[in-house]
Amino acid sequence: MTLQTDKKGKAQDGSMESSEAVQSRLKQLGPSFTFEELWELHKQSVGKSRPSIWRRITLQKKGMILGCSVILCAILLTGIGLYSPSVGVALQKVFFIDLFYKNGRGGMDSGLYQIEKQNLGTATDVSVTDQDIRLTVAEVFYDGIQFVVNYQVDYLQKKKIKEEDAAVYYKYKFKDAHPAMIGTHTFTITGDHTFIGTTVFNTEPLPENARLHIEIRRIGTTDGNWDVTVPVSLDKTKPLIKIVRPQIAGAYEDKKFMIDQITFTPVGTQVVIETDHSESLFCFLEDDLETRFNETGGSGGGRINFSPLSEINPKPPYVTLLVHDSTSVQSNTLHQREEYADYHGPGSLPVTLKGDRGGTITITDVQFLEDSTVVYYEASDAENQKPFLILRDSSGKGFVSAPNAVRLSRESFAYKLQYPKLPSERFTFKLIVNEYSPEPKEPVKIKIPIDWE
């Protein structure tokens, strides 16, 4: 598969900057998606007919290519070290996944942060130079669900690269394996001579000690040969992976299915379902506190990927699979309701907005950080725990959160959402609520015990 770059933010040449200056500058790289792009995707995702989990996997692929959903592996590059060793050392400490999220158009799950937080990646020194362009693979991550490859590109002779130079055209191949893969990527220009890239792939299980061959015959507008081969290993993640094989049979009306396996990793959760009704069934996953997992796509074969377990509840005694039938809502009509509240300082809070099915979302606090805006809220019930909440400035521009909401309490549905830095500390909360008439039938709920011993 050949992927191309999207437009990304640029930074000035950092060849003579200090470590602190480089990290500060990189933190200022903002998301490139527009609210209008995300809103169009949102409207498309809430039509009258809800797709099946397998059809939604295809839609997730499109969404990932557009940069909205996901699901997820990363390739990261840091080339400034060619010009200044001290800057190179500084960039090794930069949160590459943070750049991936900032340039990945938002709306993604935050599970990939655990790669750097828990040092789960495997460093490599694989490097190849051709046509005065050097590609260096810095790190590889794999957890049995998805793999991440981090690399950097240095233009050794070019005075200043342009947007069209920040692209890698590649094909991935595994030795003795041909897994189905769905992926996305971002590229970020970090200086006049360098850019970093991030590629995310959901994949089927790979053979032990697999080796990934990356065929690269074009970087930017330059043809050449930068083929590299890197190891893909479970050595770092295997001790942290929990596999449950429920073998629980269920049915939604007359549609039967079998929950074959659930895999929990520090970065994600994968559910494997066997069914003859893959075109109509779709599902959600919750823990024992009713925390809803975020969907991140799938890799085919009945595999559906979700976000990892929450940090406040890392070992739940059970999870619940909620199974729906898309045909049961095809005749339902979607209505969208909008709720508003102005924010003009701490005295504006708390403020309560009307949510879905009689529930509420109470916004309790707003924090303005150096490079982001954080909103704290509490939902009245599980149904309203993941609201579609937009911050709208005085010009009418909307800001959406990225990545997804993080639960903060075991006793209540208290969450925080992180938004880009707003141009003003005065804005409007805009809550969009989807309502169906008539209400869809209740899903089938299947409780799956987990023995963590």
From TrEMBL:
<dbReference type="Pfam" id="PF13786">
    <property type="entry name" value="DUF4179"/>
</dbReference>
<dbReference type="InterPro" id="IPR025436">
    <property type="entry name" value="DUF4179"/>
</dbReference>
<feature type="domain" description="DUF4179">
    <location>
        <begin position="64"/>
        <end position="153"/>
    </location>
</feature>
<feature type="transmembrane region" description="Helical">
    <location>
        <begin position="64"/>
        <end position="83"/>
    </location>
</feature>
<feature type="region of interest" description="Disordered">
    <location>
        <begin position="1"/>
        <end position="21"/>
    </location>
</feature>
<keyword id="KW-1133">Transmembrane helix</keyword>
<keyword id="KW-0472">Membrane</keyword>
<keyword id="KW-0812">Transmembrane</keyword>
<protein>
    <submittedName>
        <fullName>DUF4179 domain-containing protein</fullName>
    </submittedName>
</protein>
<feature type="compositionally biased region" description="Basic and acidic residues">
    <location>
        <begin position="1"/>
        <end position="11"/>
    </location>
</feature>
